[in-house]
Design goal:
19% of the residues are buried. The longest helix has 21 residues, at 2-22. By secondary structure, the chain is an alpha/beta fold. It has a domain at 23-127: Cupredoxins -  blue copper proteins (Immunoglobulin-like), CATH 2.60.40. Helices cover 25% and strands 23% of the residues.
Length: 164
């Protein structure tokens, strides 16, 4: 019985950590159409929730388009590609969203940004809910009453008790 308690306790601690890693999303920029001039990229982006740890995947015809990350909203609005932070051109580029904030992307092909092939995204904290939590929450915290002091679960002495 004591062994089962230890296993259960370890699962309560480990599963939420694993779930956080698994919950990272790869966003195919532009949806099924990809990074293309015909896509309203800002409408697509505004329908997404980008979280720290997620990735943007830019799929496009290499040689026809590229991806340039711009450093400011002014550069984004003016399509000032000369002040880029990064540039990619493989046709299958991945950008990791590693911090909270706003980022700006544009196509580096002459004239494409001016024609609207650009996108502004805002990344939120990885633990920010994309939808409100429901009453049928299945996280480890859902197994305990709301008044249960969950900090007790992670008390070093309690952890040592179950692990030893």
């Amino acid at each position: 019985m004591e062994g089962m308690c230890k296993i259960f306790f370890v699962l309560i601690i480990v599963l939420p950590l694993i779930a956080k890693q698994v919950s990272a999303t790869q966003h195919a920029v532009g949806g099924s159409q990809g990074w293309e001039e015909s896509v309203d990229l800002n409408s697509w982006a505004s329908a997404q929730t980008f979280k720290v740890g997620d990735q943007l995947v830019f799929k496009y015809s290499s040689g026809l388009h590229s991806v340039v990350e711009l450093g400011s909203e002014t550069a984004y609005k003016n399509c000032d590609l000369g002040t880029s932070l990064d540039s990619k051109n493989t046709g299958n580029d991945v950008v990791k969203l590693n911090k909270v904030g706003t980022r700006y992307f544009a196509c580096g092909t002459l004239g494409h940004c001016d024609q609207g092939m650009k996108m502004k995204i805002t990344t939120v904290a990885g633990n920010a809910p994309s939808t409100p939590a429901s009453d049928s929450d299945t996280s480890a915290a859902a197994f305990f009453p709301r008044s249960f002091p969950t900090f007790l679960l992670f008390s070093p002495s309690l952890i040592l008790y179950f692990l030893l």
